[in-house]
Amino acid sequence: MVPPGSAIISDWHLCKESKGYFNSILHKKRRKKFGLLESPVMPPHVSVDTVHYKVFVSGKGGVGKTTLAARLAGRNLPSMHHETTGIETTVVYWPAKLRDSGRVLFFRLQLWDCGENALRRFDHLLPSCREQADAVLFLFSFIDRTSFDDLSNQTAKWNDPSVVKVVIGTKFDLFMHCDVSERDVKEFQETWNLPMLRMGGEVTDGLGDVAPILNCLAENLWHQECLMNTTAVRPCLQDCATAL
Fold first, then answer.
1. Residue 235 pLDDT more than 60?
2. Which of 214, 171, 190, 164 is nearest to 25 (CA)?
3. Beta bridge partner(s), residue 55
4. Which residues lie across from 107 on neighbouring strands?
5. Residues of 183-215 as b/e, b for ≥16 C-beta within 10 angstroms?
6. Rounded distance between C-alpha atoms, residue 128 and residue 123, angstroms
7. In whole angstroms, how far apart are CA 158 and each of 3, 167, 182, 208?
8. 171: left (phi over 0), alpha (psi -120 to 50) or beta
């Protein structure tokens, strides 16, 4: 796991200097909806690079995959559960400031969500979701024990070390009906060494309820990209040294 706040400034969305960047993803104090070809607009004198990532949202039916995607994008949440019939994609923009360099980046996260029954019926859907995925969010519900027990099976199928993996427990606010204990969560985290976050409660118009998840995802993606770039550079340096 990447220690929180080691690569990006976790509370930067609360700082005054970030206001202009976050205003570009807000409209009348609510999140803007971005299509596949849309992006935040900054003043001409401000230059901001955008990094693009594909994120697959994985989990059993009913754990809240579609709700999570809508929540992270600031969209209206579905009033009732319905099975996602195919692949749905949601674009999320999130500005973050790198701790070491002070550089600001826009993270463009394209969330891929597919219904459990659709994945079983159509063999081509899961390969499409996995293809060139940079990260996967493993979801379970705190009120559905079977979804938590299935986590080990899900994570074992993603053995590519280059893919960022984050676990999110949904419906954490329904503690009166909780089927997953804090001890269970701790044991899983110690076994798999993966970031584990919680989502639940009322939705606000602010950024505070989604900042922990988006910051964690952005930080781990950037850390992984830096590792991959370093690994790619080393053979080139060795070749140059040999030639010299």
1. no
2. 214
3. 111, 135
4. 51, 94
5. ebbeebeeebebbbbbbbeeeeeebebbbebbb
6. 9
7. 22, 13, 25, 30
8. left
Q: How big is the chain, counted in residues? A: 244
Token couple for 164: 């960022």
**In which band, very low, low, confident or very high, does the pLDDT at 94 lie, cut at 50, 70 and 90?**
very high
Q: Whole-angstrom Cα distance, residue 81 to residue 141?
A: 14
Rounded Cα distance between 12 and 10, Å, is 6
**Continuous H helices in the chain:** 19-23, 65-73, 116-121, 125-130, 145-149, 151-157, 182-192, 211-243
Take residue 6 and report the two structure tokens written for it. Answer: 């080691």
Residues 6+ positions from 121 with CB-CB distance below 8 Å: none
| Residue 109, token pair as written in the block | 């996260």
Q: Return d(Cα 58, Cα 65) in angstroms, integer.
A: 7
d(CA 161, CA 178): 32
Q: Residue 17 pLDDT more than 90? A: yes
Give the mean pLDDT of the chain.
Answer: 87
Q: Can you give the pTM of this predicted structure?
A: 0.89
Structure tokens at 80: 């009732």
- pLDDT at position 204: 61
Phi, psi of 101 (to 5 degrees): -95, -20
- Cα 163-47-8 angle, rounded to 5 deg: 40
Sign of the dihedral through C-alpha 168, 174, 176, 178: negative
Cα separation of 180 and 203, whole Å? Answer: 23
The sign one gets for the Cα dihedral 64, 66, 69, 71 is negative
